[in-house]
Design brief:
- This protein has one domain (4-13, 18-216).
- 7% of the residues lie in helices and 45% in strands.
- The protein has helices at 7-12, 153-161; strands spanning 33-34, 40-41, 44-47, 51-53, 56-70, 73-85, 92-98, 103-112, 118-127, 135-142, 147-150, 168-174, 180-185, 203-207, 214-216.
- The strands form 4 sheets. Strands 3, 4, 5, 6 and 7 form a 5-stranded antiparallel β-sheet that branches.
- Strand 5 (56-70) and strand 6 form a beta hairpin.
- The protein is flat.
Amino acid sequence: MRRADQLLLLGVGLMVPVVLHGQNSPPSSLSCWEGRAHTSFQSRQEKTPVMKSTGGFAYAEIFAEASAISESGQFCKNKADLFYSKTGSDYKLVYEKDGLEDQGVSMRVLGWSHSGNQLLVELTVWGYDSEADPTKSALLFDANQAQVKELPLSDAFERILGKDCEFDSTLIGWGANDNVLVRVTKTPSTSRYEQTFCVERPTVYSFNLQNGSMQKGGK
């Protein structure tokens, strides 16, 4: 995650039309390239384990679509879908994210809340041949309302860390009282722009779904 005024720019990314390999892909995310030298190029599909609770069943599917425009141009575009079923059969698509050309998308399903009615999902978007860093979003699926919304974590962090603070964040899962736990770390140094750091060591924060507040510690 970058400072608030850079999030929209990094979310889209600066993409180059010819891709040799997924050089900026997040670890463990699905790509059209495989193998130690990234020489195996083809479309791929991956399904996450099914998450079960009293609120129902859910899983995600990620697709990496390979296409070759010319002998020297290999392109990969991702898509991520979230499926839900109340009974464990007859799953329905409740959320989908289509990447742009040469854009990767991955989805990590972290699990249901203690109440069993809310599902936490982390969505990551990156450019396959881009200098822009991957961007992450926290999604919340409400089984009672059958709706998915994005949690305003960036706004909550800005209120306590400041607008110019730069950091990386990763969802951990659920804390007490169905708060959302987020791990924040310092971003790597770069010469592409002037950086303003405010996080020196990994720190866990807790996001309150009821009032939108963020506080330090896994409470």
